[in-house]
Design brief:
It is built from 14 helices and 23 strands. It is of the alpha+beta class. It folds into three domains: 17-279, BirA Bifunctional Protein, domain 2; 294-404, Anticodon-binding domain (Rossmann fold); 408-484, C-terminal domain of ProRS (Translation Initiation Factor IF3). Strand 18 (362-367) and strand 19 (372-377) form a beta hairpin. It is globular and about 80 Å long. The protein starts with 16 loop residues before the first helix and ends with a strand. The structure holds zinc ion.
């Protein structure tokens, strides 16, 4: 059997991460980069199937937490953008504009939404009337467009991406604060507990906030090359937005007041990138059970009637259980070749059926998490899968969590930051301030070390003990420093 095996994918992920990523996108047919508009790619079925499942998990949680779904127009008039100064300054360089309708020049430019605050807020001003309407919680799944000038990479950074944006209206700052907490919990509940992605939520420094935000909280995940990648972020916006869009409500005391606004943006295509990157190995992809485009692949050893019949019987049984399952009938490929192919595609479980299995009433099982084969009794298949699916996800999460924890190290000098970052670590240290006065120190780190101050950790309080590692003033914060995408 061994000589039938043809290696389909073999790139060392730790050593050549960039090559690994490009290769797996191509080999597993995740995205086709040949589309003829720069920065735009075609997402292929293997990605879309997983992303659809990812959307579903996120939307289910949002709806359970009382967010209502909307579909907003893709275009936003220029005047909406111009209402809030910080927002327009932050986003204008990235906007694609529609200027013609047919051969007529439009009287007003229309933006292809880079994000939809200014679309939602326009309508919130009609919809919100009383404190009884609040909190008013919405979301939409949408694609957004940003004219990225940095190098684009499929899923990680492209000029069109797929996401969910949740926009909420509140009667007080406390309610807004409660909302961002909830958003962070949602992120953990879905991204960590279901997709298996480790991350840390940071409150971003004042110089690195969302344009127009009062406070920005963002989750950073980590790639094997040591660069962090920003995953969902959630923001409390400055009240300028409510004022600019005239979103007011009548409070319990009968007075008209401006609302508080929050927004939360989990980008599915980028989260998908992290799923590929965090779980994949030198053999290829490894999908978490619940979002695998295909959970079980059945491979017949030969095409004898009896064997074919058995594989169909198993497929039917598993489909009845709500699993996604296929049989590989491809006669062009050899038995061993199929193993490598589906391992590369990241299918969690493989079932092999041959003559021997038939006569013994057994099945050969391969599990992608342990890269191991074993035999089980055919009649125990369902109970095995039930146990396996849980164990499989736990293994993936544990592995990812451990790798992530190992990457954080304490540093005590500029030299140590430099060394840590070079080794692909996240450096933790005392730092003067995340307000304006700390910006110079952050600039120094960015220019001299090529890394960024990501912010203060949200999930636990960390007290600084000494002085700022850069300027030597008394430290008010413990911050995390890393290279980023
Ligand atoms: Zn400093």
């Amino acid at each position: 059997m061994q000589k039938n095996k043809k290696i389909i994918f073999n790139v060392n992920k730790e050593k050549n991460f960039s090559e690994w990523f490009s290769e797996i996108v191509k080999k597993a047919e995740l995205a086709d980069l040949r589309y003829n508009v720069k920065g735009f790619v075609v997402f292929q079925p293997w990605s879309v199937l997983a992303m659809e499942k990812m959307y579903k998990y996120l939307e289910d949680v949002l709806q359970r937490k009382k967010h209502k779904p909307y579909f907003f127009p893709t275009v936003i008039p220029e005047k909406n953008f111009e209402l809030e100064a910080a927002h327009v300054k932050g986003f204008t360089p990235q906007v694609f504009w529609v200027t013609y309708g047919g051969d007529k020049k439009l009287t007003e430019k229309l933006a292809l939404r880079p994000t939809s605050e200014t679309a939602f807020y326009q309508m919130f001003s009609y919809w919100v009337r009383s404190y009884k309407d609040l909190p008013f919680k919405t979301y939409q799944r949408a694609n957004v467009f940003r004219y990225e000038t940095k190098a684009t990479r499929p899923f990680l950074r492209s000029r069109e991406f797929h996401w969910i944006e949740a926009h909420c209206v509140h009667d007080s700052l406390e309610s807004a604060e409660k909302q961002v907490k909830e958003d962070m919990e949602t992120t953990k509940e879905v991204l960590h507990d279901i997709f298996g992605l480790p991350f840390i939520f940071f409150e971003r420094p004042s110089w690195d906030k969302f344009p127009g935000a009062l406070r920005t909280f963002a989750a950073d995940a980590l790639n094997p090359d040591g660069r962090v990648i920003q995953q969902p972020s959630t923001h409390i916006l400055q009240q300028d937005f409510a004022k600019a869009f005239n979103i007011k409500f009548k409070d319990k005391d009968g007075k008209e007041k401006y609302v508080f606004l929050t927004c939360y943006g989990p980008a599915i295509s980028r989260i998908f990138a992290s799923v590929i990157i965090v779980h994949g190995d030198n053999k290829g992809l490894k999908f978490p059970w619940k979002i695998a485009p295909l959970q079980v692949i059945i491979i017949p050893a030969t095409y004898d009637n009896e064997i074919i019949k058995k594989t169909m019987e198993i497929k039917k049984l598993l489909i009845k259980e709500g699993l996604s399952v296929e049989i590989d009938f491809d006669k062009e490929k050899r038995f061993g070749e199929k193993f490598y192919f589906w391992e590369m595609k990241g299918v969690p479980l493989r079932i092999e059926v041959g003559k021997k299995e038939l006569s013994e009433k057994m099945l050969t099982i391969y599990r992608r998490d342990l890269d191991k084969k074993k035999k089980i009794k055919e009649k125990e298949l369902l109970s095995y899968i039930k146990r396996f699916s849980k164990e499989y996800d736990e293994n993936l999460i544990k592995k990812a969590d451990n790798l992530f924890k190992e990457r954080i190290i304490d540093v005590k000098s500029k030299k140590e930051i430099e060394k840590a970052v070079m080794l692909g670590k996240i450096a933790r240290c005392d730092f003067c301030s995340l307000d304006k006065e700390g910006e110079k120190c952050a600039e120094f780190i960015e220019k001299k070390i090529g890394a960024e101050v990501r912010g203060r950790r949200v999930d636990r309080k960390e007290e600084p003990k000494g002085k700022c590692i850069i300027c030597n003033k008394k430290a008010k914060e413990v911050v995390y420093i890393a290279r980023s995408y």
